[in-house]
Design goal:
By secondary structure, the chain is of the alpha+beta class. Helices cover about 15% and strands about 35% of the residues.
Length: about 140
């Protein structure tokens, strides 16, 4: 796992975290904007970096407003799969669609995120446990 963030308020800043506590069926403790299926959001480092190169941008991945940044994991068409993040499992429930806030951060970013799940994925937390930057991330079979 490359990075973790929490959000204190709707439309609020993303706070970087070295570790977070996950609660099964709820999401990340202390994070706002959770629902029954969209408890955490995940983006891929490789896709973020590719979009920055394409757009000539230099935004920190926190601008995506996701909770978890992974690398070496392809999220495309992963609905229904289970992703293990350290000791915590997350069932991917769908693709996170980009909103107008992305173009506020960098013109053209919303369109760049549209294909191939570049905006990331959202999921439900299946286990209580701690996530830490540096934890191993892998798909469960």
């Amino acid at each position: 796992m490359a990075a973790l963030w929490t959000k204190r308020a709707h439309r609020g800043v993303m706070d970087p975290q070295p570790a977070v506590h996950c609660v099964a069926g709820r999401g990340i403790a202390g994070n706002t904007c959770r629902s029954s299926t969209r408890q955490v959001t995940i983006i891929e480092r490789e896709k973020w970096d590719a979009m920055m190169r394409e757009l000539g941008g230099h935004l920190d991945p926190a601008a995506r407003r996701a909770n978890i940044l992974v690398h070496g994991i392809d999220l495309v068409a992963s609905r229904g799969r289970v992703l293990r993040l350290g000791a915590v499992r997350v069932r991917i429930r769908g693709e996170t669609r980009p909103c107008e806030r992305m173009d506020e951060a960098l013109p053209g970013l919303r369109t760049a995120m549209d294909p191939d799940w570049r905006g990331g994925a959202f999921g439900e937390v299946l286990d209580d446990g701690e996530l830490r930057v540096g934890d191993v991330v892998a798909w469960e079979e």
